[in-house]
Amino acid sequence: MRILYFVTHFPSFSETFVLHEMTALIERGHDVSVLARAPVAGPLHEAYEKHRMGDRVRYIAPLEPNRVVRVARSLPPLARGLRDRPVTTLRALDPRRLGIRAATLEPLHAADAVRRDHRFDIAHAHFAAPGVTACMLKGCGALTCPVVTTFHDIGALTYVKSWGPRAYDQIWRYGDLHLMTSRGCLEGLAEFGCPRERAAVHHVGIDLERLAFAPSRDSSPPWRLLYVGRLTEGKGCHLVLRTLRGLLDDGIDATLRIVGDGAERARFEALSHELEVTARTEFTGAQPNSVVVDEMRRAHALLAPSYRADDGKDEVIPVTLMEAMAVGAPVVTTTNGSIAELVEHDVSGLIVPERGQRELDDAVRRLLADRVLRGQLARGARAVVEERHSHHTQVDRLETMFERLASGRDTA
Length: 412
Known about the structure:
Number of helices: 18
Structural class: alpha/beta
Low-confidence stretches: none
Largest sheet: 7 strands, parallel
Number of strands: 13
Strand content: 5-15%
Distance between the termini: 20 Å
């Protein structure tokens, strides 16, 4: 099959699961192309280079914020479109088909990106915004293949604030299959009009062969705590820093490595100075996935105290937690979003309330003090990811759905 992926950033550090899905399909003989908004600076994943993904990606021209400049720069794609695909081009400008987004000229530029190569068997978008783009192309005829959108969080409040309560209408109207990575995501999107007869839960998978189970850690201080994730509001990095301060105040020898980057990094670094934990904390910045996994193998505990921030976003089922659970790093996380679909308290990890600083501190102390508990949680966690989140099993299922859609058969 010829498969066209829609993503916002490519390559992206925080979305290696998308890259792994693409490369698995390539290894199965499928022809994969990528349509993205922009790349993200940083070292490239080995799979990106192995499969020459740079030769497979094309980028949609960015939209100028200045309306006059945007219109001027839209004249060349408009001329090319009217010459090569006039009906499709006019439909890309039709608000009756594409709603208010037609006026932004975004569909025109996206259609121009596939103007010369538009014959695909399947289009697969990861996340809502790329899903809207893919479905707009289906709606104007720039694409004629089935469109699948995978939602990783409902993104409801931020997306609806930007585009109104009918933000997802193009996906529901023109999309053929809507995949949600958790039951919570499915229930949330149903409130925004998602047609259940064309929706299904499809978990993200991780490569368990690459993530060998290695639960043994030395059982003496210093205890190595690990945070992996974006340094943004809602991820709880400041809670982890305060937990470290509490451990040190109680005479517990511990260190913390913070792997990731983001808009709030300077604030968290300032907090580490304020708490006087800089000597015990290292901010590594964003790292390749192989380095992240090595960090997990060394950690006595991975802390992921996510909570709902002001933008309304919740976690669905974080890949970071899956990977830590796969390699045997005990996890301490929260009740946020759909995390409880992955982690069961006292069975595959420890769960504390959102923003619960005292509960987080107590859970970490309990974990570090009990070697037997750490081993039990590690084994329970590995069993969960083997049962529900095997990369090969999930790609098998996805490939079957794609083949059925491409052949015109029902995916049920």
